[in-house]
Each structure stands twice: as C-alpha cells, then as structure tokens.
Amino acid sequence: MPELRGRSGPLYRAIADALAEDIDAGRLAPGTRLPTHRELAERVGVTVGTVTRAYAEAEKRGLLKGEVGRGTYVRDREVPAHMPLPMDTGDDAPVELGINAPATPEGDPASQALRRSLEELGRSARLAELLAYQPAAGPYTHRVAGAAWASRFGLQARPEQVVVCAGGQHAMEVALAAMTKPGDTLVTEALTYPGLKVLARRFQLRLQGLAMDAQGLVPEAFEAACRGGGVRLLYTQPTCHNPTGAVLPEERRKRIAEVARKYGVLVLEDDAYGLLPERRPPPLAAFLPEASYFIAGVSKLLTPGLRIGYLVAPARARGERLAEEVGLASLMTTPLMAEVLAGWVEDGTADDLVVRQRQEVGERLELARAVLGSEALRVRGVPLYHLWLGLPEGRRSEEFVAQARRAGVSVTSGDLFTAGPGPVPSAVRVCIGAPRTRAQLERGLRRLREVLDAGPEPLAAIV
Fold first, then answer.
1. What is the C-alpha separation between 212 and 191, in angstroms, rounded?
2. Alpha carbons 21 and 18: distance in angstroms, whole number
3. What crossing angle do the helices spanning 320-330 and 168-179 adopt, rounded to 10°?
4. What pLDDT does residue 244 have?
5. Does 277 sit behind a cis peptide bond, omega within 30 degrees of 0 on the bond before it?
6. What is the per-residue pLDDT across 221-266, written as a single tens digit (0 to 9) for each?
7. Least confident among 73-77, 122-126, 203-207
8. Which of 1.10.287.3510, 3.40.50.150, 2.10.10.90, 3.40.640.10 would CATH assign to domain 109-347?
9. What is the pLDDT of residues 295-307, one digit of tens each?
10. d(CA 117, CA 107)
C-alpha cells in the first residue's frame, strides 16, 4: 500500500515515487510480486489506468519488470541486466561475455592500421583543413566514402544521401529525430536492440513489438499492425538480428517492403553486422529505396573506437534534414576519424579488416559450440559476435545472469531485449568477441557451462 499523503503532482507519478522510496528503503525487496493493476487501484481508490501509468513509469526508471502471465515484480537493481566486469586478464579474473564488441584477431590488425593512418595523416597537407569546422553532414569526400561503404552491403546510394554520424547509435538517434514526433508509433521485432528502447522513451514514441520466428520478423504481424493504423516507422535488423542472430530471407524482405509501401510506413534498417556473412540477401532498403533509411555499420565490423557510422537517406531524398539534426546536437562529426575511415574504405583496409573479423569470429564460434554444445546455442549458421543461448526449462534469464556473474562471467539477460510487454525469453545473449584472446573466451565459456550444469541455486537467495 503506497503512502501518498503529502505528495504533489499527478497521482500516477506519486505512486511511482512511493514505489521508489519503498524499494530504496528495503520495504519492497527484489523479486517481490506487486498487486495487479486492479487490486492496487481498489486499495488506493484510483482508476486502473492510473496504476497502469504508475507501473509503466516505475518500469521506465528501472524499478520494476513485468512478465505476461506472471505479474509485475521488483527488479534486482544490484544485478542489472548488464554491467561491464573489471577488465582484468588474470586466470582468476572475471570474463566479460556481455559487451557486444568485435573480436581482436591475432596481431590486432585494426590497431596496426590506425597507427599507419595516423602517421600518414600527420604528414598530410589536409590536416589543417580537417581541424576546421566541416559541414554537418560531413565533407563531400567523406560522404563519397559512405556511399562506397553502403555499396558493400548491396545498397547503391549517392553521396548526397549520406550523412556521417558518430557511430550507429548516433545514426539511429538522428534518424528518429528527423522522422518522428512524440506520440508516433514505432514498431520493431519482439526482441530488439536495447538502445532503440532508450531512444523510443526519449522521443516519447509508442514502441510496439511484432511477432518473429527463427527467420526474423513475421510479415503478417507487420501488416496487421499497419492495418490497425497509426504506424509511422519500422525499425528492423533483418541481417544478423541482435540478439537472436536471425537472417531474414529475401522473400520476406520483399513482402515487408510491399507492406510498408502500401501503408506509407517508413523503414529504418540497422545493418550493424551485415558484412560478417560472406553471402547474405540484399538489404531491405534495396526493395524500398524511396522510404528506407539505412545504417551502414562500422563499429561492429572494424573497430568501435573510430565512432563513425554512415546513415543513408531514401533514394530520392537528400540528407539535409538528417544533417540538420547532426548540426543541432554536435555541429559535426569528428572529421579526423572520418578521414581515417574514408582512407580505409578507399584503399581496401576496411575490407581486409572485415575478412580478418570473419575468420576470427568463425574460430570463436567453433570454440563456443565445443564448450557449450550446439543443442543449447540457437545459431543461424553465420559468423556473429553474439549467440542466443537457450536456458534449460524452468530457469529464468535474470536469475541465470546473477548466478553466472557470481561464477565470474557476465552475460546479458533476455529481458533486456523485449520490446514492450510480453513473455520474457528463457535465454541469454553470449558475446564471444569481447574477450581479448581465445584463452580468455574459453575460460568464460567453461564457467558458463558449469553454471548451466549446476542448475538453479537454492531458493533461499530469491525473495
């Protein structure tokens, strides 16, 4: 029963504030099941809608989590869905398998390439020019490089369509700022990139998860949502979906493009990992060029430290609206790193780094299969940094993450990826690229195998 006396402001926020205080004071322990919306409404004397808004506000603050069929629970904030482990490399050190990062092949070719590029840049006559202010969309030569990089994914674009951003997350933010307004409906796969959920809240968008299967987004679910009206934008990861690794077949891509065209829905396609498979379907944007925005990934394919990403506007559009959003936020994207990347695209260094990544992650995938067992891994047959590990029956992902962390290995809970209310998957994401060496990876995988074999810990640890 929340204490509401003396509180000002909307009732739903007062209830959320009371929940926060009770959780902080220990009166509501992690794992506590809260009353249903109707039960609490009757106790407090408010409408069910007010309680629904209060629980949603508390969930937004990271205080609660809801599971269809089970109820609403106090989240364990001492063991968040993911928190990086210390970067120690000793034999007894914790192993980080929660951060989705590219692998480090032997010899660290990305660092070697950057060292050469910086030496060349230091001797370049263009250095003074690169230290000056640049157009918000990026210098034309950098946009040419972006168009060339997009072509590697199978998308033909003009430099005028390209905007240089500070990584894929920034590109996503720029696209949403340009395409949406508060209250718009954004649809995506039922499991989606957590960064999108954060941005949807920031831009006050209605986020709706759509049914997916082993191949990815189900076109019929997308059409049903569009038929209901009000859908403004589809955000999708059709190639190497995060977290499941699914690759959407070409026929489904065509069907989704047809539905989007029929109902006038814009598409934001995020292709962070798309060059890792040697063979892949054309991007969805190739079937809907007039209404698709495309993020041509860089960080997960080359190195995240460059903080450069390319955002491609629809075919008949120019990037002015997108560039305006870049300019409002940061004036421009760092031209020095964009110059390095442009050089890598032009001289083939970027392609060589992708090949090295593909080879390294293939070796790591075989190691993961050997240690964890192919029956547990929902692997889609393509090299990828993240694996979707199905848990044995009866084990919950959040509980498993906490147990693994105590065993010295960090993975990411499946509930972090759910788009809106719905069943929480009994699975965790395991990132095999984060450890610097294969020896570190093997230690982490073996600890994870031990946690799987040990079964759940006694219920005494759970409130």
1. 8
2. 5
3. 110
4. 92
5. no
6. 999 999 988 999 999 999 999 999 999 999 999 999 999 999 999 9
7. 73-77
8. 3.40.640.10
9. 999 999 999 999 9
10. 17
Burial class of residue 1 in the structure, from the number of CB atoms within 10 Å of its CB (0-12 exposed, 13-18 middle, 19+ buried): exposed
CA trace torsion 191, 195, 200, 202 (10° rounding)? 160
**What is the pLDDT averaged over residues 118-132?**
92
Query: Which three-class secondary structure string do you get for 310-366?
Result: EEECCCCCCCHHHHHHHHHHHCCCCHHHHHHHHHHHHHCHHHHHHHHHHHHHHHHHH
CA distances, 50 to each of 22, 69, 99, 182 (Å):
19, 21, 37, 21
Given 1.10.340.30, 3.40.630.30, 3.50.50.60, 1.10.10.10, which CATH number is that of 11-74?
1.10.10.10
Backbone angles phi, psi at 101, to 5 degrees: -125, 155
Note the pLDDT of residue 234.
98
CA 57 – CA 36 distance, rounded (Å) = 15
CA distance 418 to 371: 28
The C-alpha R_g of the chain, in whole angstroms, comes to: 23
- Pick from 237, 331, 231: nearest CA to 285: 237
Can you give the pTM of this predicted structure?
0.81
Q: Where are the domains of the chain?
A: 11-74, 95-101+358-461, 109-347
Beta bridge partners of 293: 268
CA distance 64 to 62: 6
Contact call for residues 124 and 336 (beta carbons, < 8 A): no
Class of domain 95-101+358-461: alpha beta
HSE (side-chain half, CA atoms, 13 Å) at 228: 10
The bridge status of strand 427-431 relative to strand 412-413 is: antiparallel
Q: What is the pLDDT of residue 38?
A: 87
Largest alpha-carbon pair distance within the chain? 73
Straight-line distance from the first to the last Cα atom of the chain, in angstroms, rounded to the nearest whole number: 19
Beta carbons of 257 and 287 less than 8 angstroms apart: yes
* Rounded distance between C-alpha atoms, residue 188 and residue 236, angstroms: 6
Bridge partner list, 217: 212
